[in-house]
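Rotation project, supervised by the postdoc (A.L.). Task for the rotation student: set up a whole-complex structure prediction and record inputs and outputs verbatim in this book. Inputs entered:
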Amino acid sequence: MKTALLAGAAAAVISLAMSGAALAADITGAGSTFIYPVFAKWADAYKTTTGIGLNYQAIGSGGGIKQVEAKTVTFGATDKPLSDDELQKNGLVQFPMIMGGIVPIFNIDGVKPGALVLDAPSLAGIFQGKITRWDDAAIKALNPSVTLPSAPIVVVHRADGSGTTFNFTDYLGKGSKDWADNIGSDTAVEWPVGVGAKGSDGVANTVKQTAGSIGYVEYAYAAQNQLAYADLKNAAGKTIEPSLDTFAAAASNADWKDARNFNLVITNQPGDTSWPIAASTWVLIHTQPTDAAATAEALKFFDWAYKNGKDQAKALDYVSIPDAVVTQIEASWSGITAGGKPIFGAD
Amino acid sequence: MAVTTGETFDSSDGASGNQARRVVVQDRIFYYLTLASAVFVVVMLIGVMVSLVVGAWPALEKFGPSFIWTQRWSPVKEIFGALSPIYGTIITSVIAMIIGIPVSFGIAIFLTEICPDAIRRPIGVAIELLAGIPSIIYGLWGFFYLAPFMAAHIQGVWKFSLFGWNFALSLGGIPLIGGLFANSASGLNLFTAAVILAIMVLPFITSITRDVFQTVPTLLRESAYGMGMTTWEVVRHIVIPYCRVGLVGGIMLGLGRALGETMAVTFVIGNSHAISASLFAPATTISATIANEFSEATTGVYTSSLILLGLVLSIITFAVLGLAKWLLVRGDIK
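Outputs recorded:
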């Protein structure tokens, strides 16, 4: 009986080892759900051209950071950049992979999609519970031609930690000192008011079924589900409609050159046409990987995606990284080495 | 014990000697297999508790016992207090019991005392099916149907005209206790979560209650009816006193389930770390907080605080089960 058990266990180990070998050709990554649709599309196209697949687990940025630190995956993806210290401690580098936008969505009786204009101080006031009715003077001043009801505002925020929340609260903090001092920005914050919903779909559905509500989701989600979003007044004082063009403007107006470790959150960027809540997803990868071959494959895939993945990203309502920034990123890859030699461009 | 039984066999002659050995070996294997299963449960329980304590240690060290009674939950500043999830867990469960117990008892009494045979089975089957619905389905239903219904019809204002007077009534307008029902535009709140929980615990309490009601000896019951008691009097003076212990057990089982329910509650409670006087305000529970926040808890103290929350929930649940056991034992001695 014992021998039978042993044989069974041995067989299981062998089959595990074999499946491990079969997967070794695939690039492994984990993290941000924001970037997942783009990665999936890219991976599909990349597999048909190169035969190399991507095994990406969309477990959230926090999970991605943990997994890449534990070296169970080749790269991680996060919607919130790591600080210099955090990168150094774990021997990681980061670089932006994709950009997108975040939009406020609302459901107000009698107000049409796109008819509402808000700015950072008014949004911060609403999400802080200091502006409680839709006909508040601060909102009226931004929307002189819109008839706003005297209905209470129901704030809807994410209940789970999220890169979307990080970028949204970062924007509120840049536009409102009160917000920055009392609440701050993170993937989850201490919400003073409102209803928490899980995931973008949770926020969207809660807003849809609650009259007088306001929430925030990534633009790709809002566009594909035809949600009513608001326009925003940007840092230059212009009223901007969310679109791929205005996100791209924010991305290219951002000062990437002086951003150490690409640690730049592209909310509230200058420029007349910049959408104020643009967001990026960063890839995290080890500078001295234990498996240099896997890292080489991953970098090749990223290079391919920067150069050939623009149309796919656009089709999914994401913004690809500007060419000038890509050049800067690929130059930074010289720091990813094995045996003292850069891994990327070695062959 | 089982190990020794084989040794009483006489192993002098060959055939029965083989038989005896077979019995001994088989019994021994069986003994160890069942023992291993039993030990496995204990080891698992201890393992889970130890890993919870180990995981929660950084938070315990940082916040100490004040974790239980402070309310601030700030991932940005890394200050965590469990009061609002503990409050939400207990209040939703208590309201669920207030709604669920009378209805469950009503169903059980109807089924055992009053119900015509023809419809007893269909109702019984319906209750069992209710118990079989996965909690995520309750969550979806609660989110898409119950919450909007509550917002529109229970929490809202009822306007009507009578004899030329216009009335606008709402639960929030009730004197003294109106604050409990302060108007809110969203149906995602503590009360909706409690209603969902009440529906979820209903089949558990009902089926146990029905089973214990059936243990009442026919002699007692028939004698009472023979003396001219009404059904209400029989239930009130014979059935319930006879079954008291079993009823407590059923209630505690339902309460245990309500305390730990995660998915359905997460969908409808509004997930807000706030304690409000109004039952129509969003709140959170321990399990909902863990489910929502664990995957994105990046810092050590944050993760540890969530594990500590899990430990607190385990202790609350153990306390409820322990109380139930104690009541049952006390009832037996009586």
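Student's summary: The mean pLDDT of chain A is 87.
Supervisor addendum: The first strand of chain A starts at residue 27 and ends at 31.
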